[in-house]
Every structure is written in structure tokens, then in C-alpha cells.
Amino acid sequence: MSNYIEEIKTLVMEGEDEEIVDKIKEAVDDGVDPLDIVSNSLIQAMNEIGPMMASGEVFVPEVLMSAETMQVGLEYLKPMINEEDIDSAGVVVIGTVEGDLHDIGKNLVAMMLESSGFEVHNIGIDQSPQDFVDAIEKYNADIVGLSALLTTTMIAMKETVELIKNKGLDVKITVGGAPVSEEFAKEIGADGYSEDASSAVILCKQLLDK
């Protein structure tokens, strides 16, 4: 039998979104478990892409193509499997803090987290502290990710962390963005900081001990 699991994983890593469905269909027709494909081909491919991005072996456009290919494969397979059977790595709410309209970095983090098995709720840009609290409660989030790209909006990040803590919500708080640092994260009481999308995935898994 063809090694479909490896072949599908390779297609994801190479961003071959036009070929992925045909190969998955071929695998399923040949008796490969759809759940096996999700876990060991699609998600595993993104787990390997993350460290490659961190080490400079691949770059953002390639990662986006891989994530897109993974999503195409996942959409095709979803009707064949119970969503409950897919082990969620955890629920993440992510957004850009109040006063900040940047979203490219945040969206890449969201896509990488989703591709790595997390249930992600991207609430968008210019989100107030209360908006984050409402989303955490609505989605019963395990982790909240706060993004800021301007030094002037870092204060909004601090205020958001304070409100989450004042509300006593049981959620891990992560922060990121160009002006943000590990030191600032500790200073405002966040649980973790990541400098890019691939390290954000690693951080979230560590925080939930996945």
C-alpha cells in the first residue's frame, strides 16, 4: 500500500493545495482512516513547519501556503469524521488590543494555532479589555492571546490583563507583537510571550502541557 500518510504530509508541507484533495480521496478509498490523516498528516505537517519557520528554513509565504493546504484537506475530511473525535489542543481567543488596527501577525498566529489542532476564535482588531473578557467567557477559552504592534497600545494590553485577572477568569494570558518583550509580559502579569507564530504554538502547548 502507498504510504499515504507521508505523501499527504509532504503535500501540506509543500503547499500543494490543488493536489491535496485528490490524494486524500485516493487514501480514503484505499481504506486509510480519515482521522489518521487529520492527526498524522495534516496536523503533523504543521507541527513540523513551525520549528522550520523559527529556524529560518521556511518563510511566512510558504507557511501560509502550507496552512491553506492543510485547511483545504481538513474541510474535505470534516464530513467523514465526528468533530468530537478530533482531540482539540485547547480553546484560544486571540485579538489585537484597543486602539491598534494591525492584524497580519495576529492572523498568522491564529492560522498556525488552528492548523496545530487548537480551536481558535479570532475576535479581530481594536478590541477593548471588556471585549476580551466577553469572548473568554463566551468560548470558555483556555488561552487568550493579546497582540499589539504600537508602543502606544501596550498600555491597553496592560489594562486588558488587569481586567481579566480582576474578573478571576481561569485562562492563560499570552502576549506578542513588535514592541512587546518577555520583560514587559512579566511586568504586566501575562503567563507567556512569543516573538513569532511558530513560538506561539509551542508556548500555547507548554501552557496547557500538551
Description:
There is one protein chain. The protein is α/β, with parallel strands linked by helices. The protein is built from nine helices and five strands; from the N terminus they run H-H-H-H-E-H-E-H-E-H-E-H-E-H. A five-stranded parallel sheet has the order 2-1-3-4-5, with helices on both faces. Strand 3, helix 7 (154-166) and strand 4 (172-176) form a beta-alpha-beta unit. Helix 3 (34-54) packs antiparallel against helix 4 (60-77).
How many β strands by DSSP? Answer: 5
Distance between the termini: 32 Å
Number of helices: 9
Shape: elongated
Radius of gyration equals: 18 Å
Structural class: alpha/beta
- Major sheet summary line: 5 strands, parallel
Outline the low-pLDDT stretches. none
Provide a short characterization of the protein structure.
The protein is of the alpha/beta class and 210 residues long. 54% of the residues lie in helices and 13% in strands.
Defining key terms:
five-stranded parallel beta sheet, elongated, 210 residues, alpha/beta, 9 helices
Give the helix/strand layout.
Elements: H1 4-13, H2 20-29, H3 34-54, H4 60-77, E1 91-97, H5 104-115, E2 119-127, H6 129-139, E3 143-147, H7 154-166, E4 172-176, H8 182-188, E5 192-193, H9 197-207
Parallel strand pairs: 1-2, 1-3, 3-4, 4-5
Helix pairs in contact: 1-2, 1-3, 3-4, 3-9, 4-5, 5-9, 6-7
